[in-house]
Design brief:
Blueprint (H helix, E strand, L loop, with lengths): L1 E2 L5 E7 L4 H12 L6 E11 L2 E10 L11 E2 H5 L8 E4 L8 E5 L4 E4 L6 H8 L6 E4 L1 H15 L18 H5 L3 H79 L3 E7 L4 E7 L2 H9 L4 E6 L4 E3 L2 E10 L2 H5 L1
C-alpha cells in the first residue's frame, strides 16, 4: 500500500550517537507514546561526525485497511529518482494539491501545503532552485513505478505492518462442544473415582503397616526441602540485593533533589534510567563525581518539555575490589 503525502506526518531527527543499539533505543523512546494512534516507520539516512540522521513517518492506523502488510510513504519512494539537493514538484492523479519534495544528504523534506511557496520551501530545506524536476499527473505513475524498481532492495525492512492480535469469541466457538465434553468428563470422573477409592483403601492398609517408616521419610524430605529453600534464598540475596543496594546509593541523592524517575533498569552489566530534571547536564556532572559510577553518558538525545529536560543515562557500577584499593 502506497500512502499519499497528504495522509501522513514526515519528520527528521538528529541523534548525537552512532552505535546501532543506542540508535534503536533512542528511536523506540521517541515513538513509544505514538504507537497506539499511528503506524510508525523509520529509516537511517546517514551516520557521520558522531551523529545519526533518521527519518520517521507517522501513518494513522485508521487509514490502513485490515490485512495490509506493507505500507510505503509516497515521498520516500520518489526520493530515489531525485539527485541530491534536487527540488521536485509533483502532482498525483488523485486531484490533491501539488507536493514539493527534496532529498539532501541528511534528510528528506516534503510539503503538501498549498500556502507555502516553492521559494520558501527550498529555503527552509537549505537548497537552491537551480536543479528542479516537475512531474505532472499524467507522468506520475511512470515515475512512481521507476522509483519502485530502484528502491525495491530498500523496502525489505522498515515498512512492514505488525499484525494486531485478533480477539476471538471463545464462548461461541466452544458452545457446541460443551455438552459432549461435559458428558465425557462426568463419565471419566465416575470411573476414576471408583478406581481411586479402591486404590485408596489398598494404600491406607499399607500405610498403617508402615506408618513409622513413612513419618521418618516425610520428616527428612521436609527438612531437605526447607534447606534447599534457604540455600536458594541466600543465593538470590547474594546475587541481586548487593547491586540493588549499590544502585540506591547512587540514586538516593538524586531522588532527594526532586529528580523525577520514569524507569531504572539493570541488565547485569549496565544501569539505564530515564528521568526528568531542570538540567540534564547537571545530573550527568553529578554522576561523574560518584566513585561507584563508571562512564555515565546520555544514551539518547535530551528533550526539552516546558521547564524540564527528559533524558536517558547509562553507566556501569564499579567493582567493590576497585573501591577498596
Amino acid at each position: 500500500m502506497i500512502v499519499a503525502r497528504q495522509h501522513y506526518i514526515e519528520r527528521a531527527i538528529s541523534l548525537p550517537i552512532t552505535l546501532t543499539k543506542d540508535v534503536n533505543a533512542a528511536i523506540q523512546f521517541e515513538i513509544e507514546s505514538l504507537q497506539s494512534e499511528f503506524h510508525l516507520f523509520h529509516k537511517i539516512i546517514s551516520t557521520a561526525d558522531g551523529k545519526t540522521q533518521v527519518m520517521i513517518w507517522q501513518i494513522p492506523r485508521d487509514i490502513v485497511p485490515k490485512g495490509v502488510m506493507l505500507v510505503l510513504p509516497e515521498t520516500y519512494l520518489l526520493s530515489f529518482i531525485l539527485e541530491t539537493n534536487q527540488v521536485c514538484v509533483y502532482q498525483a492523479p488523485s486531484g490533491a494539491g501539488p507536493v514539493k519534495l527534496v532529498k539532501t544528504t541528511k534528510k528528506i523534506c516534503s510539503s503538501a501545503s498549498e500556502q507555502q511557496s516553492l521559494a520558501i520551501f527550498s529555503q527552509a530545506a537549505g537548497v537552491n532552485l537551480q536543479n528542479t524536476l516537475d512531474i505532472s499527473a499524467e507522468e506520475f505513475l511512470s515515475h512512481l513505478l521507476n522509483a519502485l524498481k530502484i528502491s525495491v532492495k530498500h523496502l525489505v525492512t522498515g515498512f512492514w505492518v505488525k499484525p494486531s492480535a485478533e480477539k476471538k469469541d471463545w464462548g461461541q466457538i466452544l458452545k457446541p462442544l460443551i455438552v459432549p465434553i461435559a458428558t465425557f468428563f462426568i463419565g471419566y470422573l465416575a470411573i476414576t473415582s471408583l478406581y481411586v477409592s479402591y486404590r485408596l483403601s489398598t494404600v491406607s492398609n499399607m500405610i498403617e503397616d508402615q506408618r513409622e517408616d513413612i513419618d521418618t521419610v516425610l520428616t527428612l524430605q521436609s527438612s531437605i526441602h526447607e534447606l534447599q529453600n534457604q540455600i536458594e534464598q541466600y543465593q538470590s540475596m547474594s546475587s541481586s540485593e548487593e547491586p540493588a543496594f549499590r544502585m540506591w546509593q547512587v540514586f538516593a541523592p538524586l531522588y532527594k533533589q526532586g529528580i523525577q524517575f520514569k524507569f531504572i533498569r539493570y541488565n547485569g552489566q549496565q544501569v539505564f534510567f530515564s528521568a526528568s530534571a531542570k538540567s540534564a547536564s547537571k545530573v550527568l556532572e553529578q554522576l561523574l563525581n560518584v566513585k561507584t559510577v563508571i562512564s555515565p553518558q546520555f544514551s539518547t538525545a535530551v528533550r526539552k518539555t516546558g521547564d524540564e529536560e527528559t533524558f536517558i543515562i547509562k553507566f556501569s557500577l564499579a567493582a567493590e575490589e576497585s573501591l577498596d584499593e
